[in-house]
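User: tokens in, sequence out, please.
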């Protein structure tokens, strides 16, 4: 059975998603990218290469971020046809970035620049219009030898090497400099495996006991006033059952502004932390001033109280871009008008650790997490993944958190409403997790760490500089007419 190039591009894009969690079959992504490279190199014109890149991207994002429909329709109350159209439009927009990479390499007649162009367009996708870095192909390599490069250049360096490896596979299959390509492919893998043995950061002090709470409050009930008291009782009971020095609750665990919550309840949570000689981190919205609302995490316990306010907000989910106010009449999302927190927020000094907190979608931005790392000993992410139901999103989000651990050389603790609540080691390995859609408490020993990986110091700059240098270098080497 033969596919037309257009159909093959779309199918290959969809197949590339198998390399991401929860499927975690990295060879699928590698082979899918090799197919795309084949289509680009066989394209008769830049326009045909653009179309192949677009269809690959459309298949990739429709398969990989189909959960956008779930949040818009099932929980955002957007009519089904409109939610489907919005999801298609969003995925089509994202597909423009691989389309641009395909067009550029064909227009410049610079096939060797494909990995660099992929990374540069992937970086643009994660930057413009607040960015959407989800499904960067580097994430698919988290369990491969290529993960060894993450502490040096982050996800984008792993993306660069993933696409390079796919190109080498194409050369091997096409019998083009087969032995040289095979040697280069092996060298990339062997060097990555060797780098995985490097311990970039050092343990600091003794481990601290931590309880991560998962209340399993369905999204459809989370903001129901009739469910409010039960929600509060669930988290109070879980907190009081813990003997950990640090207790972490999910994003907006209490679905009401702090000043509207009964003081006795806040004191109850604080008492649970004080009894353990430690602190509790509570996800809760704040009203900083009239009209200024913040998605925040506040500390309660023996340490001085401190708060973290979310900085990178989700468009339409947490703020409405200028000119789009009309969409609120269609999309029914509670607490969708937050303000950004300050950029210069230091890690929280709680439970004897310095904890750098980020909220939900923020941990998709590796450079931002590294920039705010400062002298943090632990990373904590609190989320409410109930917005995406039983979809690929929670698994993908856990994979992203694993990459943040690897990039920064810090243990990552994730506390979510419905899952996946987990503890991740500094080398990106999953230590423990709770089942999705279940109420529970995950008790772990968290080891603080000090020192900085190269990525923590330089963030995305090395990977981008290398990509730019490779692009210009290979563009200049393009064959003459």
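Assistant: Sequence out:
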């Amino acid at each position: 059975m033969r596919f037309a190039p257009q159909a093959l591009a779309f199918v290959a894009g969809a197949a590339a998603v198998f390399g991401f969690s929860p499927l975690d079959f990295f060879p699928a992504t590698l082979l899918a990218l090799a197919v795309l490279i084949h289509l680009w190199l066989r394209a008769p014109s830049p326009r045909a290469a653009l179309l192949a890149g677009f269809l690959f991207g459309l298949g990739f994002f429709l398969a990989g971020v189909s959960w956008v429909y779930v949040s818009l329709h099932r929980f955002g109350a957007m009519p089904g046809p409109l939610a489907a159209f919005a999801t298609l439009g969003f995925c089509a927009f994202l597909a423009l970035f691989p389309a641009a990479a395909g067009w550029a390499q064909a227009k410049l007649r610079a096939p060797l620049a494909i990995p660099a162009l992929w990374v540069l367009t992937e970086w643009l996708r994660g930057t413009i219009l607040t960015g959407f870095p989800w499904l960067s192909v580097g994430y698919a390599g988290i369990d491969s030898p290529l993960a060894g490069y993450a502490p040096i250049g982050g996800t984008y360096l792993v993306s660069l090497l993933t696409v390079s490896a796919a190109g080498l596979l194409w050369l091997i299959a096409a019998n083009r400099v087969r032995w040289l390509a095979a040697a280069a492919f092996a060298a990339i893998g062997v060097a990555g495996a060797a780098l995985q043995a490097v311990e970039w950061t050092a343990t600091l002090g003794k481990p601290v006991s931590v309880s991560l709470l998962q209340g399993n409050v369905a999204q459809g009930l989370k903001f129901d006033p009739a469910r409010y008291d039960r929600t509060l009782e669930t988290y109070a009971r879980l907190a009081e059952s813990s003997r950990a020095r640090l207790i972490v609750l999910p994003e907006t665990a209490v679905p009401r502004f702090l000043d509207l919550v009964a003081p006795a309840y806040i004191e109850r949570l604080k008492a649970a932390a004080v009894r353990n000689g430690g602190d509790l981190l509570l996800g809760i919205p704040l009203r900083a001033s009239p009209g200024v609302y913040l998605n925040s995490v506040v500390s309660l316990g023996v340490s001085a109280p401190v708060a973290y306010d979310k900085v990178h907000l989700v468009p339409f989910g947490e703020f409405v871009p200028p000119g789009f106010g009309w969409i609120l009449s269609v999309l029914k999302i509670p607490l969708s008008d937050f303000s950004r927190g300050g950029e210069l927020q230091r890690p929280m000094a709680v439970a004897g650790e310095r904890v750098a907190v980020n909220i939900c979608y923020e941990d998709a931005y590796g450079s931002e997490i590294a920039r705010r790392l400062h002298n943090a000993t632990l990373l904590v992410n609190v989320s409410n993944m109930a917005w995406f139901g039983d979809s690929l999103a929670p698994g993908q989000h856990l994979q992203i958190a694993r990459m943040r651990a690897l990039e920064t050389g810090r243990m990552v603790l994730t506390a979510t409403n419905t899952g996946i609540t987990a503890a991740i080691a500094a080398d990106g390995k999953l230590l423990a997790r709770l089942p999705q859609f279940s109420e529970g408490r995950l008790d772990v020993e968290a080891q603080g760490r000090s020192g900085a990986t190269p990525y923590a110091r330089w963030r995305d700059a090395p990977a981008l500089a290398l990509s730019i240098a490779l692009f210009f270098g290979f563009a200049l080497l393009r064959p003459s007419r």
